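Quick question, first post here. What does this chain look like in 3D?
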Amino acid sequence: MTRIAPFAFCTAALAAIAAASAPLPAQCRLCAAPVTQRAAPDARKAIRLEIETRLNFDRLVLLGEGEGSALLRPDGSRSAGGSIADIGPRAMAGSVTITGEPGRALRIDLPSRIELYALGGSTISFDQVDSDLPAVPRLDSAGRLSFRLGGRIRIRGDAEGEYRGDLPITVDYQ
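> Answer (accepted):
Ran it through. Tokens below.
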């Protein structure tokens, strides 16, 4: 065995002890230029939008050809009028969860109207998009915000078929 390794260890240990006993300079809070801009959001805290439940009108009971509408509110209540007699019992309002930086205010844009398409090429409109979002949406202390949404389907003429469409939701920090 050589004595070099223990000696090197002792020297490093002594240097660490000497460095620890040296006085540390105080930090000057007034020396740095003040920052007036909000810190850039951490990449790990980017906004994420997840659809928890898809908006679904289930089945609509039609009385015949003509104009009608079906309304599904964010709280799950529903009503029908015109040539639509009723909405199926499994109709569900959509639910969305947004995650990001805790406490941040959000700007959430929902479209006012979209078109829904059937495989045969028929279209119906979905409008009066409504949500239970607060007036100023904000992520909670855990960085989450959940909301529900609904709207109105309007039909004209023979609207038989399965209709689908995408409802774009835009979310950004304010």
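DSSP finds one helix and twelve strands in the chain.
The radius of gyration is 30 Å.
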